[in-house]
Amino acid sequence: MTSWYAPLARAIPALVLAGVVTFSADHSPALGLITFGIFAAATGAVITAFALRSPSGTARVLQLTQGVVTLVAGIVSLAMIAGGLPFFVLVLTAFAVVTGFLELYLGLRSRRTERSARDWIFVGGLTVLLAIIVLLVPPGFVQTFEGPDGVVRELTASVIVVGTLGAYWAILGIYLVIAALSLKWAPDDTATPKAA
Questions:
Q1: Among 38, 88, 166, 193, which is least packed, fewest CB within 10 Å?
Q2: b/e 24-50 (16+ beta carbons within 10 angstroms → b)
Q3: Euclidean distance between the first and final Cα of the chain, in Å?
Q4: CA quadruple 178, 16, 67, 60: dihedral, nearest 10
Q5: pTM to 2 decimals?
Q6: C-alpha distances in angstroms, 35 versus 3, 16, 41?
């Protein structure tokens, strides 16, 4: 059974980095790679640590694989901060497709035996959706516009991708906090029934 603090530990980096992206004027690929690298390294370490403590079986293998892939994606991102937008999109979508489908499959497979199955299905589906949205952004997209202050600005593919990642973290973080509290306050199935 998943501990309530596992989703909470995953929520913290997501919420912190959602705030960083939201309040940063810089939406460059470098910022995307740094923030994604921090998120993936922290989340991968959390998933791997909790997977190592779970009972052996297919669920453990899936979670370990998800944790290691996430951790590697984080390390690669942090090592290649100057990789540019194509590299950022490649690492982000590879992470999102692989880990999203792993978590989605784990949730569907465990829905009759695990309280966290619905959460895994939601998070897996949200992560796959992130990959789809990022892949739909044209790489060379640039649109100029004039802000309310009269200053001409540019909306670029980088701004859209980094902004989408920030929105993903905000939704993910809020959902995982709710999931953690739901697990904490859920009735204990192992408790012995009271005598009539």
A1: 193
A2: eeebbbbbbbbbbbbbbbbbbbbbbeb
A3: 28
A4: -20
A5: 0.89
A6: 26, 10, 10
The ranges assigned to domains in the chain are 5-185
The rounded distance, in Å, linking the Cα atoms of 118 and 107 is: 6
Kindly report the number of other CB atoms within 10 A of residue 75's CB atom: 14
**Sign, Cα dihedral of 153, 168, 166, 59:** negative
Nearest to 120 by CA among 129, 132, 107, 109: 107
Instruction: Quick: pLDDT tens for 139-183.
Output: 888 888 777 777 777 889 999 999 999 999 999 999 999 999 988
Residue found by looking up tokens 């370490």 in the block = 45
Long-range contacts of 13-20 (CB under 8 A, 24+ apart): 13/38, 13/39, 13/42, 13/43, 14/39, 14/43, 14/169, 14/170, 14/172, 14/173, 14/176, 15/169, 15/170, 15/173, 15/174, 15/177, 17/166, 17/169, 18/166, 18/167, 18/169, 18/170, 18/173, 20/166
Tens digits of residue pLDDT in 40-61: 999 999 999 999 988 888 889 9
| CA distance linking residue 177 with residue 168, whole number of Å | 14
Amino acid at 118: R
